[in-house]
Amino acid sequence: MKYEKGGLIAEGKTKKIFEVVDSKEQLAIVENKEDITAFDDPSKTRTFKTKSVFATTTTCRVFELLRKAGIPVAFQEQISPTEFVALNCRMIKLEVVARRYAVGSYLKRHPELPIPKDGQAPHRFHRLVTEFFLKTTAGKFVEPNGKIIVEGLDPQKGEEDPIISNPFEGEWQLFHSKKPAWDKTANLKRTIKDYKVVPENDIVTVRDRVKMMENILRKVFLVLEGAWNNLGLHFIDLKIEFGIAPGLEGLVVADVIDNDSWRLRDLNWQELSKETFRQGEELTEVEKKYGIVTKLVEQIRIPKQALVIWTGSDKDEPPKAPLCHGVNVVNVVLSGHKATKACLEKLEELMGNYPDGGVIIAKVGRSNGLGPILASHTTWPVMAIPATLKEFPEDLWSSVRMPSSVPLSTSWPEENAVQAALNILAQKNPLLYARLQEQIEKLDT
After folding, report:
1. Which domain holds residue 208?
2. Do 331 and 247 have their domain in common?
3. Element (H, E) at 431
4. β-strands 358-364, 305-311 pairing
5. Could you report the per-residue pLDDT of 10-66, keeping only the tens digit for each?
6. Which residue among 69, 345, 363, 364 is least crowded, i.e. fewest CB within 10 A of its CB?
7. Which residues, listed in sequence order, are joined to residue 331 by a DSSP beta bridge?
8. Cα angle vertex 12, ends 85, 103, to 5°?
9. Strands 382-386 and 358-364
10. Running DSSP on this structure, what letter comes out for residue 353?
11. For the segment 41-53, what is each residue's pLDDT rounded down to a tens digit?
12. Are strands 305-311 and 327-333 parallel, antiparallel or unpaired?
């Protein structure tokens, strides 16, 4: 589809926003600039020619992945190496952060946590930590109608973009983002009540949307964490922004998500993101790392995997498996005892059709010949469910006592076999990983 660029709507430090002609203000074109910034200090801004291409490529591939995960995004499509089209949102002036590891300003606010040495792992949070920061400019927070809600924050003292200590409560308390709460100077003695994106006609306050934003943030982080895990990288933290889609109803992930938006480290815990620029690394080295991340993000994909539910007889009721993006549930009915050759031929067919791999759940009663035969002829994990366990407990032994080089596992009840299979598949599938990890982390709420 062709998009005609209209007038400039807004310009930030690293991007420009343009109207899309004849879109009735529904769409905008986002054009990335070649600038890289640090510490909200214009004197530290630098440029490198590939920055805009790297930022656009990374953002577009990330948003395409999130959209596949069913996450609401403003992104529509990439239209050039440095531009993409998005919904023309009304932006919520918050930076929403998720952390898997304790680094950066979090350590300054929590000095009780250990500071890792170079090459060591930081403190890891089992459940993601989420935080909300107020976006301010020149020490002020201004509503779209020009009303000043907060002012007098001193950028020289690091008071810009304060953290909201109680985002889920009615009146927000603002604190210094780099001081522990027990420091008497951390409380900025500023509050915000009932902040609205569109004060004149929006009856819903941002506070009413905070929980929704947190839920979406968690999904975004976990999808990307699963993707980066697949590529052998440590996903440290992430900052995103939200907007209200045209019509004032839909909350979407907006703005950009690129190498400026996260901390990302290699297997040896060496930084690959914008943090290296903040730390003073040479610009040529920073550019190389942005190029590495861009090449890696283009490798992210949703695999085509198989969850094979194999029964020895049509009398065996197969276990139920949920629908998962990228995972095909394949039902096979073949007896290992009575149709051994056909079983092995079917196994070869499955392995040929699914180069991304799969897991086989073999549910059979009486003597389990199927599970051992399959397990000894494939590198795919094979799990047995003894279908007649309740009626004949002794049938369990034919699934447990295996000879050498027959790596069959046995699970009961059958729901656990399905869960274990999904856990295995999730190691390659970022969308499945996010789904399962979210369920695990909810146990700690």
Report:
1. 88-231+238-255
2. no
3. helix 430-442
4. parallel
5. 888 899 999 999 888 899 999 999 888 877 677 777 888 999 999 999 999 999 999
6. 345
7. 309
8. 100
9. parallel
10. H
11. 777 778 889 999 9
12. parallel
